[in-house]
What does this fold into?
Amino acid sequence: MIYLDLLYPSKEEREKCRSNKTIGDRLVEDLCLQEFVCSDIMGKKEYEQLCNEINYLPVDEKIIRYRQEVLQDFINNPGFIRRLLDICERLQYRPPDKHYGRTPYQVIMHEKLKEYIELVEGNFKLLFETTLSADTELKSEAMTKIAAFMNNPEHRKNAKEIIVLLTAFLDAQAVGYSLKFTYGKLMNLAQIAELGSENVIPLLEERGWRRNKTIDKEHYIDATINWILGNNLNEIYQKTLYKLCDFIQRINNRLLFTFKQILYDSSYYHVAVNLNKFCRKYNIAVCRPNILSAEEEKLEAKELFPIYLALQYHKQNQPDRIKSIQSNNYDNSQGKIAIITGVNSGGKTVFLQSLGLAQLFAQLGFFVPAASYRASAAQYIGSLYAMSEDTGTVHGKLEKELVCIRQTSQQIKKHSLILINEILASTSEEDGTAIAADVIRVFAHTSSNIIFVTHLYDLADMAATGKLTLPEGERAVSLITERLQQHEGGRSVTYHIIPGKPLKDIWEKNLIDKYIAGVNGAM
It folds into this structure.
């Protein structure tokens, strides 16, 4: 059996990978993926389909590379992709229903079979008379299989044989048939006895139909003089028509299911192609990520670009601002736990979001907006973002965040990626630091990458001074937003996230800077 699938190399891997979710419940929302719904990237329907696939984000590097190669074929062979999807859309499911009135059932089934033969003949013609153009160069396993299926002369021969034999059955009104259907080769065996008369049935023997017509060895029973036998033969003929209709429907339905699935899966790659076009339009560097095994525990990005921010400026019709967006580097070789602090609007959350989207895109098999990206496949990607207060309920902000922490602790797997953004801000710094440190210690037992954007100076200081006790082999690093001294005592940020010691009372200093800037502006 030939397995044609754009997302998984085998049926077994599809069933295995889609048995459990591999992302947190709030990840798509926290990464603002819904903001990518626009005419340039994807529509609402494509977004819903993509979210469904994201729920079962691949964690096997083999499957990720499989999708990378399919995407490359989509990019390199747009003409073939258009023709393939056109075929998928034009394949017909069933002939139009006709009103037969009080027509005898046998005649109806005879006409039905004729309609199904015409339907399948048209679909076969559409599938197997489509040739590859000279500029088509397919390299992925999935697309090569599809092209080979459509251009295999044996499949065309077998398809023609089905039509010829079924048409002969209709013409002969035969009652004997033997059919065996194997998808992939269409039909290994298709034998229909052409008896020539609906009132004559041969006797069967081990080697097949007996056709000797000699008087002394009569192997045919003549039903013309026996009305009971004649009725039985008509019933056999009707059942034969019904079974053949079912047979030809199963062939057609199987073909349609496969190619409609290809049409459905293609929207997944259209999103990736559109993202690639968007980056090229604004000269944003993209790369094919290097996916490593989970055990290598690597996460490295060079010139990681905040694609979400660029999309916002694009929607606001401010393309010039995209040129001023700063990219960032990240490397977990010094420690898989990163505590990020810095001024408000310094690029911390944008950086966290960019890293999350990059890992998400990498495991989807998409290109990543960066000069280079090397990462192990995260076995689970979760997010813990600051919660809003619930008005009209008894649940406070801190309580909701603690519930989410508990849920994540139950879902996290070994070698995960956990994105944490400004949680525990509704309690005291002392209590928040104690809770955050405990959460990090627990999560660190899974050898996961933990990126924690926070206002908690003491927590960041513990990471910078090595006082944050962690499981053996795990280390934490302190990252800060880069600040530049400008003229007249003003300060600015570059939106670069760099290694450094956290600054105490940074929030108060930030407010003072804003106040001084406001006073100077008013003078």
